[in-house]
Every structure is written in C-alpha cells, then in structure tokens.
Design brief:
It is a peripheral membrane protein. This is Energy-coupling factor transporter ATP-binding protein EcfA2. ATP-binding (A) component of a common energy-coupling factor (ECF) ABC-transporter complex. With 236 residues, the protein is of the alpha/beta class. 37% of the residues lie in helices and 27% in strands. The protein has nine helices and ten strands. The strands form two sheets. A six-stranded mixed sheet has the order 6-7-8-3-9-10, with helices on both faces. Strands 2-1-4-5 form a four-stranded antiparallel sheet, covered by helices on one side. A hairpin with a 2-residue loop joins strand 9 and strand 10. The two termini are 28 Å apart.
C-alpha cells in the first residue's frame, strides 16, 4: 500500500510572472509504506520543492497529493495534521534548533502535538537515544553542540513526533566521512527497528546505493527513473 501518492503534480514558483519557474512538471509516483526511498538528482532539479509538498508546506499549483489515501488539500483547514504525519528534517539544522536546551528543543514537536509533559519527556529521551545523544547532552544549549550533534538533535526532534514518514534533506551534508556514516547508519537502524517509511534526499550516489531500497531520480522537475536500488545502479 502507498503512504504517499503524488498525482500529476506541477509546482510553479511565481506563476503568471515573467520569471516563473516550473520546479515540478506533471509528476506522478507512489511511496510504499515502510520502504526506504532515496531521492537523487542534480541541484535545482526540484528535490526540496517536492519534499516540502509531502507535509503541506507547499501547495501544488496543479495535481494532487494523497497521504494514506487522503487528498491532503481537500480541506485546507486540516493541513496542520500532516505536519505531524510527515516529519521533515531540513538540510540546515540551525533552522530547527532554537530553544535553550537540547531537551526542550527535541520536545518542541511533541509539545506542539499536545502530549503530556511526561509523554513528551519519554519521547525526547527515546528519540535522543535513537540518535546517539546521551542524557548529559540534553541539558546543554543546542548552540554548543558539534555539527554532527546538531544534525542528530534535529533528527531526534522530528522522530520524537513519531511521524509515519521521516523525510531527510541531505542530513549528512558538510560532515566528515565518519560523521556521515554515523548519521546515516542511525537513520537506517531507526527505519529497521520502527518500520517507519524513510525518504532520504541526497546527491551522493554512494549513500543512496548503500541505504535505500528504491531510488527516485529527479531531472529538471520530472521523474527520470524510479526503481529498486539494484536496478538503478545496474543501469548506471
Ligand atoms: P533542489 O532541491 O533539487 O536543488 P529546488 O526544489 O530547490 O531543487 O529548485 C527547483 C527549481 O525551482 C530551481 O530551478 C530553483 O531555482 C527554483 N526555485 C527554488 N526555490 C525557489 C523560490 N523560492 N523562488 C523561485 N524559484 C525557486
Ligand atoms: P506505542 O507507540 O503505542 O508505544 P508501538 O507498538 O507503536 O506502541 O511501539 C512500541 C515501541 O516502539 C514504542 O513504545 C516505542 O518505544 C517504539 N517506537 C515505535 N514507533 C516509534 C517511532 N516512530 N519512533 C520511536 N520509537 C518508536
């Protein structure tokens, strides 16, 4: 069964303006429940525009987006619920870390969901553990963390919401090989242990080949290929 279904999705920045850009051009595909999907393609091909549609941050110019079979824009008043169903980890975690302590920061999402303090704290500790952050780190300021720890705290903040789909945009960008490996193998373990659907955006063929079950190749706003990792790399 599909968890996300994209149907004839077109997205145009500045529609009707002389400098309008068609970032996504009539694309259709489905993401299967529980899979680890890699999304790859050159800079400017539409990866960020695509993933910000998954939780309703962007609204299609044309076409539809379904989550668990529901057209998410059928009632725009209900769009907020999809922010919790599909957890997005942005490329630059600085945008997501803004509380005084790491504990508060990771708890931001679950607090927003209206969970009790006790449940929030339980989820924070669990998410931090998943991301390899020990309890002492939770009392520190997010600004004191290393680059790798910041990434892990940003991921923990999203998984603390227990989203149905975890979407990560270049979660290891700018880290050294050891840091990359640590982040990506933690994401993989999370996927294996919780069965959560994961979408990993990267322009590293190597990372995608190593971690993804299927690969979506975007090119100039179109789906160039969508196949199992083995088939995609057999062709490359
Ligand atoms: P990627 O994430 O693959 O680098 P993007 O989704 O960021 O691609 O960009 C897709 C296209 O949309 C590019 O041509 C880019 O220049 C354009 N674009 C992205 N964001 C904006 C924006 N805010 N305003 C206008 N054009 C944009
Ligand atoms: P519940 O979520 O109601 O506790 P589940 O059967 O969904 O029950 O999960 C069992 C345990 O697995 C949870 O208590 C939690 O520790 C862990 N777990 C499940 N899903 C997630 C998730 N998305 N993120 C982190 N931990 C999870």
């Amino acid at each position: 069964a599909s968890v996300i279904k994209v149907e004839h999705l077109t997205y145009i920045y500045g529609e009707g303006m002389p400098d309008a850009t068609t970032a996504l051009d009539d694309i259709s595909f489905e993401i299967e429940k529980g899979e680890f999907l890699g999304v790859i393609g050159p800079t400017g091909c539409g990866k960020s525009t695509l993933i910000t549609h998954f939780n309703g941050l962007n609204r299609p110019t044309r076409g539809k987006l379904y989550i668990d079979g529901e057209d998410i824009w059928a009632d725009p008043k209900k769009i907020r619920q999809y922010r919790f169903k599909v957890g997005l980890v942005f490329q630059y975690p600085e945008y997501q870390l803004f509380e005084e302590t790491v504990r508060k920061d990771i708890g931001f999402g679950p607090r927003n969901m209206g969970l009790s303090d006790e449940e929030v704290d339980q989820r924070v500790v669990e998410a931090a553990r998943f991301c390899g952050l020990d309890e002492a780190v939770l009392e520190r300021s997010p600004f004191e963390l290393s680059g790798g720890q910041k990434r892990r705290a940003a991921i923990a903040g999203v998984i603390a919401m227990r989203p149905e789909v975890l979407v990560l945009d270049e979660p290891a960008a700018g880290l050294d090989p050891e840091g990359r490996e640590m982040i990506l193998s933690q994401v993989k373990r999370y996927h294996r242990e919780t069965g959560t659907t994961v979408v990993l955006v990267s322009h590293s063929m190597e990372d995608i080949a190593k971690y993804a079950d299927r690969v979506l190749v975007l090119q100039a706003g179109k789906v160039a290929m969508l196949d199992t990792t083995a088939n995609i790399f057999a062709r490359a």
